[in-house]
Amino acid sequence: MQVETVLMLFCVWLAGTAGKMVQPRGQKLEPYKQSRSRRDTRMEGGGGQKSGSPIFKRSPDLTKNPMTKSEQLLRIDDHDFTMRPAFGGPPIPVGVDVQVESIDTISEVDMDFTMTLYLRHYWKDERLSFPSTNNQSMTFDSRLVKKIWVPDMFFVHSKRSFIHDTTTDNVMLRVYPDGNVLYSLRVTVTAMCNMDLSRFPLDTQTCSLEIESYAYTDDDLMLYWKKGNESLNTDDRISLSQFLIQKFHTTTKLAFYSSTGWYNRLYIHFTLRRHIFFFLLQTYFPATLMVMLSWVSFWIDRRAVPARVPLGITTVLTMSTIITGVNASMPRVSYIKAVDIYLWVSFVFVFLSVIEYAAVNYLSTVQERKERKLRERLPCTCGIGNPDEMMIDPQITGYGSMDVNTTGSYGMPENGGRQERMLAQVALNDPQITGQVKASRGYVNIWIDTHAIDKYSRVVFPGAYILFNIIYWSIYS
């Protein structure tokens, strides 16, 4: 019995010793990193670090801590960002600057222009301030923009606009520790441009892009150019095929809406001067050549009807085609443009050249008809020895010797003209037909020279057209 009692006590002692060595159930094991960190801390606190060691404890920077979310750092959930900053107080100033990347198209037909630009906003929102000692700012993309307050800018008189989204949304948000915010986006906008085309294509146009807050009046939001005219920057490589960009400038005005109030509005003005060389080649030179081509008919024999008529019709139809082509690419305005004046005056010159030949042809026909009637009334003059002496007699003809020399060939047809007039004068000596020819006496003395119309036209038409060009280019250039 004593031996059994001793063995039992020995077993109880072993069980108690083993229980002390085993960790109680339910106690969590420390990770290796925590146990190492605690050990390092004990070494620093227990005097394991020698005096004069260069190792110092760094202050924590929350912006560098990967375990801290941006929403927690900016305390987005702690504020109501549906309200503007400092709601109920003075209006919040929002500075704007713009960098124009390109001017893509300018359309006279639609009266608009398309521009790509970088639009940047600057304001201060103390709700977004955060503690930071090293990092000066934090930059975010469009995902955070939807969770905070941003100015609600829009383009007045815009037809179409969009934010670029290749490869992601071209939106940048930069927040500074003191709450200052930079909000930038890349936009392409098509806006209206009221053009005055009365001097087209020798015109200069001024277009404007207008920026305004949609919801906030000047009592809540003060919109301004951040650096005045220096707030507008342009790329030196911007160029247009039809226009020369002369200058950019900015202005600020107040816009009033009867139902909502006054709003700050920012303007971007740019002045464009049209290149004239394209229109010289495509419009002015062809029109001038057609007018000059119509003058060729003045040097063609009036009896060459198949030559002069097609030439006049061809120039008229060509001018009509030029006018139609120019108007097809222009808006249907209710006033006269400079190019219309030039083309229609040129058309009138071409048309008058056709009318000139019609007049020549008509007068020639009338003249031939009168000559035919006169020949029918005249007797046979066969056997007359020297009819010229009879023509020189002023009592018979009414002309002196100088009149015959100076007018004998003036206005006469090249073949037989002098002979026909001579026969008419000889016939006046016959008293039997004197009474019949008295009516024709005026015709003999007032001989209509159809060649004179062509001769005068060779000088009058070019002179008048040159004078018109001098006046036109002095006014519009």
The largest sheet is: 8 strands, mixed
| Quaternary class | single chain
* Cα-to-Cα separation, first versus last residue: 138 Å
Task: Based on Cα principal axes, name the global outline.
Answer: elongated
Q: Figure out the total of helices.
A: 13
Number of strands: 12
Low-confidence stretches: 22-37, 39-57, 62-67, 383-430, 433-449
Mean pLDDT: 79
Q: What is the string of SSEs from the N terminus onward? A: HHHEEEHEEEEEEEEEHHHHHHHHH
> What percentage of the residues does DSSP assign to strands (E)?
15-25%
How much helix is in the residues? 40-55%
Please compute the radius of gyration using only Cα atoms: 50 Å
Structural class: alpha+beta
Description:
- The protein is of the alpha+beta class and 477 residues long.
- Strand 6 (171-175) and strand 7 (180-192) form a beta hairpin.
- The chain has helices at residues 2-21, 32-45, 70-74, 142-145, 277-294, 305-328, 338-377, 387-392, 394-397, 401-407, 417-427, 431-445, 450-476, and strands at 92-107, 112-124, 138-140, 153-156, 158-163, 171-175, 180-192, 204-213, 221-225, 232-234, 243-257, 261-274.
- The radius of gyration is 50 Å and the shape is elongated.
